[in-house]
Every structure is written in C-alpha cells, then in structure tokens.
Specification:
This protein is an all-alpha fold and 87 residues long. It has helices at 2-49, 54-84.
C-alpha cells in the first residue's frame, strides 16, 4: 500500500490521467481489431453457406469494417494528441 502511494505521488495526477487515457484509447483500438476480425470471420462463414450472396455480404462487410476502422483511427489521433501534449 505504501509503495503504491509512493508510486502514485511520483507520477502525479496528470500522469495518472494520461495513463488512463492511454489505456482507454488502447482498449478502443483492441476492441476495433476484435470487431473487424469477427466481421471478417462471420462474412466468410456466411459466404461459405450461401455463395450466391457473396457480393452483398462482401459489400456490407467492407462498410462495417470501414466504420469500425474509422473509430480506431480517431482514437489513435486523440491518443497522439494527448501523448504529445497538444490536447
């Protein structure tokens, strides 16, 4: 307990806030990666079951993956601004 308090006092409130932001943005990026993986896997399963609808499934998969990727990119941009002290 004392060691944790000493460590927290060395980092300071701003350091802990930055650590929390970095963890939050990192989890956002990991969640986006997991979501894109799930979309790709389920789309391949769907195409394997019904090959005649491969076109619409592929289109919808790409649109959903692009939206998720956009969130991940926005998160990385915010993380870059926070870590460089611009925000």
């Amino acid at each position: 307990m004392t060691l944790a308090q000493e460590g927290a006092s060395m980092i300071g409130d701003k350091g802990l806030a930055l650590l929390g932001l970095a963890l939050g943005f990192g989890f956002t990026i990991m969640g986006a990666a997991k979501g894109i993986g799930n979309i790709g896997g389920k789309a391949v399963e769907s195409i394997a079951r019904q090959p005649e609808v491969a076109g619409p499934i592929g289109t919808n998969m790409i649109i959903a993956a692009a939206l998720i990727e956009g969130i991940a990119v926005i998160s990385m941009v915010f993380l870059a601004f926070v870590l460089t002290g611009k925000l």
